[in-house]
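Async update (no meeting this week)

Hi team, since we skipped the sync, here's where things stand on the single-chain job. The sequence we agreed to prioritize is pasted below, unchanged from the tracker. I ran it this morning and attached the output directly underneath so nobody has to dig for it. Comments welcome in thread, and please keep replies under the output.
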Amino acid sequence: MKKALKIVGIVLLLFIAALVILPFALKGKITQIVKKEANKNLNAVLDFDDVGISLIRNFPNLSVKINALSIIGIAPFEGDTLAYMDDMALTVDVMSAIRGDQIEILTIDLHRPVINVKVLEDGSANYDIAKASAEEEDLRAETSDAEGINLNIKGYSVSDGRVVYDDVPLGFYILLDGLNHSGNGNFAEDVFTLRTQSSIRSVDVVYDGVKYLRRAKADLKADLAMDFEQFKFTFMENELDVNALELGFDGWLAMPGDDIDMDITFKSLKSDLVTILSLVPADFAEDLEGVDAAGTVSLTGFVKGGYNENSMPGYGIDLLAENGRVQYPDLPRSIENINISASIKSPEGDDLDLLTVDVAKFYMEIGKTRQHKNTVDAELYLRNPMSDPKIKTRVDADMDLGSFRDVIPMDEDMSIAGLFSAHFALDGALSDIENQRFDRFTAKGNAQLTQMSYSDDDLSVKISEALADFTPQRLNLSKLKLNYDDINMSFDGYVDNYVAYALTDTTLHGVFNFTADRIDANKYMVPSEGAADAEEDTEEYELTAFEVPANLDVTLKATVGEVLYEDIILKNVKGEVDIREQTASLRNLDFQTLGGRIVMNGYYRTVNPEQPEVSFTYDMQSIDLKAAAEAFSSVEKMAPIAKQASGSISSRLEINTLLDAKLDPVYETMQGSGNLRSANLVLEGGDFLQKLASTLKSPQLKRQEIRDLNVSFVIADGRVTTSPFDVRINNMRANISGYSTFDQKIDYMMRMKVPRSELGSDFNKMAENLLGQANALFGGSMSLGETINVDVQIHGDLMSPSVSPNFAGSEGASDVKETVKAAAKEKVEEVIDDTREKARAEARERADKVLSDAQRQADRIRKEASDAAEAVRKEGERAAQRIMDEAGSNPIARAAARTAADQARQEANRRADQLEKEAERRANDIMTKARSESDRIIGEAE
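Output:
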């Protein structure tokens, strides 16, 4: 007996020792296997801090706890965390771990997991981390004999999890916070029941900028019959609670092949009206806690059919609410007699032309009293939405907006008032309007708003009167008078295809007139980065690029008394804006500013919204140059000397350039030409005038009065090149030519005829010495004339230019002897001939440059138009292909889609041809002007 006890004791000690020692023996092996196998098969980095192993916790199975588990992405998600959890607890079959050939995992528990799923604009997703199939084949070949992991899960759980799904292309965002989920079932069996329980502390759902759920609570109990042999999953007893909405659902989902088949029905389990309020998007509804709601409601629906890349299952939803009543706490009036009957059905999801919308009843009284009718009564029917939409709708509404504060909770800083009424009806098919069978389409009634006002912390608007009426041909905005942000405005006009625009993806056509008294444009500029914390009076603003809508064909005729832009005041502003084909065109925009008048034409185009194109011409008359240079940075860049000038100018400029994201010109793409005229300008100050006066020893040159200025210039290749022009400066004559660049470099030549009286004594002394040397050389007795020829080169950096004068002879010389040697005379004639030939050569060179610059500009315009046209044609082809793809295999749908696809191609080709024709016209105009300028330059030299 003692011997037996001794043996048992020894075995027990060995067993306990094994329980303690074995986990440490297996720890390294399991860690190595998990990391190796995971990272072999992932385009991401899986890591964890430590692995804890115990045989005691889940004896006789092995407990494995992986701490600080993370999955970090690689490009284009370098450094982004796809998943992190405090720990993952696994229950492992101990014998499989000892054998080491295949580890069998029985349970998985995740503690505080954080999952961040991101889909970028280009469609790439951070969860797509499994290596490609070819790589998987290679891995299988390399690791056919390696250790593996087998999931034989009987139970799993998630505690206090957080899941974020952010799909940028879809505009869809969902946040699940405080997620707790558990499930149990024998996954080793082909057929078993999976029982799950889920709760979520907070759910946020945002789609297309609208927040549909905000901090909603959700619970789900779902039991599923799992049949892995047929890959079919049947819903048994299931219940989903979202806030006050409780849904039960039944049916099944199967995946026998690549397609997903389903037949699922759902219905509301509660008949309280508050369940409808739970469906109202969070952006439009306050907290429902404490709301007194009565009435009955029924919500049912189905999803039935197959799902794959080319088809969607059919679906339907029915909503019925009767005798509803809603009253918010602490408010004196309620919403009464809520009666809604609505049905949306699409029996075949891939054929949207079978979609039907029936809202037979939509009625409610919002705080109705004897004084305030406050009733909405409407109906809506829609058929054939894809092929030939047929609509029937009626709206009758009368509202006193000011009484809403007694019915609906509002912020204390919010104020609303006014009377709104709408009584209109539409009935007919879109084809009747398109074929001008207006007698078959009913459109009558109007909508009116009077004495409306609204204000809050950010907005203040008053509408004294607004009236719109409906006809089959047009929706007429008879009048709209409003005050927005202290701007008195009025609109009137019409849109002539409002039904097609509302029902189909078509372009809206319209004409509107707009008047305003005064607009302060500075209020609507976007604050520049870093200015958010600045004081209001020192805040910096900058414009940002915006995209012109592609589905608008609208003309806006505007008259504005005064516009304030930065420190510039534009008065008596008149003009038209045409918006079509992603282009906003200015037509005869006429205004007074900076002491003169400006007329502008041009366009802003966003075919490429990342780099808009702008082209415009302006004609300025009698503009204060100094004020213009201070107001517009582009004036200083194109005419740097303007900062030192005073006086008025007239100018004409034609220019084309690309813009960056801040609407600043991309100067290397800028092309154009123009002229600058002034009867009298005064230049004073500036570094180069100081240097010129100092070099010529003539203080008078610090202030220059320029008369009869007439300058022509060409903009190309990042520079403004000035053609040679004559000008009078003080008592001097000069011929000036050269260029300045947009990176503040200049190179100008001033050929001056300077009276000796304007030059300093030191300069005159130097000139007399040089002339004495010439007399000694030629044996003559020449003397200085009254006018000295000086060539002055001004070059280098704009802020600190170099001034290099060159003495070039004199005019009006006296006491020149007849005995000047013939050789000297011949020499002078040779110099004159050489000078003339040099001038001709320089003129030909300048003329050739004008032509070559113009040719480059014309070629660039043609190339950009060709590229843009090709992009439009390709987009049209893609749109056509999308239409055909969406039609699926249904022959009727494909026949209808084929017509729509051809229209998309034709519209794209029309737009592309228009772009190329417009570019060819502009290119020809540029070459015509360049040839004229070239002929003028050569003619002047001859």
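Quick observations from my side:
The chain has a mean pLDDT of 78.
The first helix runs from residue 2 to 40.
Reply here if anything looks off.
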